[in-house]
Amino acid sequence: MESAGELVAFPLLTTPIESNYRTCTIPYRFPSDNPKKPTPTELSWIDLFLSSIPSFRKRAESDDTVPDAPARAEKFALRYAEILEDLKKDPESHGGPPDCILLCQLREQVLRELGFRDIFKKVKDEENAKAISLFEDVVRLNDAIEDVSKRVENLVRGIFAGNIFDLGSAKLAELFSKDGISFLASCQNLVPRPWVVDDLDAFIAKWSRKAWKKAVIFVDNSGADIILGILPFARELLHCGTQVVLAANDLPSINDVTYPELIEIVSKLKDDHGKLVGVDTSNLFIANSGNDLPVIDLTRISQELAYLASGADLVILEGMGRGIETNLYAQFECDSLKIGMVKHPEVAQFLGGRLYDCVFKYNEVLG
């Protein structure tokens, strides 16, 4: 389940031992909790993953790359549900106690054992094609905004709008299968500011000084998220003279974009001169993060990414999995931004916000 080669700690993470780095944001249990009894938080998250099984089963059934896909999808649903029920009885079974990382790992493990490598491949390809056709229009709309502050805010809103395309959320998967999701409508219908975590003004103030020489962005979903949200944002950083490293998953997980897919997407968007709608891409690098889940443990990333991240002065973790459910409180030796939309009621409750609220947590390292 891991990328080839030894995984290492992300070099810009404040020394894990010193900073007490904890991957998962939400405390699922405390030392005083009975190790043999699931906590209310653990139970609510197990139920959340149980509720997602029908949408995963539906995707698996239609995977025409796997022989006997419907029968195997049925086995996946039964086996994964059985594992989750086991965890309700004994939280230490299956490598517990459970948190969002373990619950994701177990789901991917069952899928892969049954021969399912990428059950969202078809919908990812379809959404990537749609988003690629819209990329230039979205970029030109952004370029037409002369005021830097307003342009950056518009780019940020584009990231949030794109981040809605998340088939790991049972509610959003159902909505998407019925109606699809319009990028421009999503931009207009974001919850109003102030968001549940809203450091946008401080971020824009720093941006206006063209302060960052190198940014590392941990990207999230395929489709509108990467193509209409992150890439226009990255293009603007490149235009400002910032070197940009995009870190994508090694292996497929939900509808997250993978390293090979991202290379293909960027190559399709570049013109014959290697530019993204007029902006030079010689300072754009794409890295394999070494990750295979929709969440990420920053003590386990690829050596390739560790090398490319050297000297970066801005780290961005995008998406609910990488930037909210994990790493929201992670500390770095440089400026950092955690940006994503809240798509689970459990996360909204923890943060004291609304469902589909926005998190924009910017930490500036002075000096």
TrEMBL record:
Keyword annotations of the record: Hydrolase, Manganese, Metal-binding, Nickel
Highest taxon above the source species: Eukaryota
InterPro entries: ARMT-1-like_metal-bd_sf, ARMT1-like_metal-bd, At2g17340, At2g17340_3_helix_bundle, Type_II_PanK
UniProt protein name: Damage-control phosphatase ARMT1-like metal-binding domain-containing protein
One Pfam match: ARMT1-like_dom
Domain Damage-control phosphatase ARMT1-like metal-binding residues, every copy: 53-359
Coiled-coil parts of chain: none
GO MF term set: hydrolase activity; metal ion binding
Species of the source: Cinchona calisaya
Cofactor(s) the protein requires to work: Mn(2+); Ni(2+)
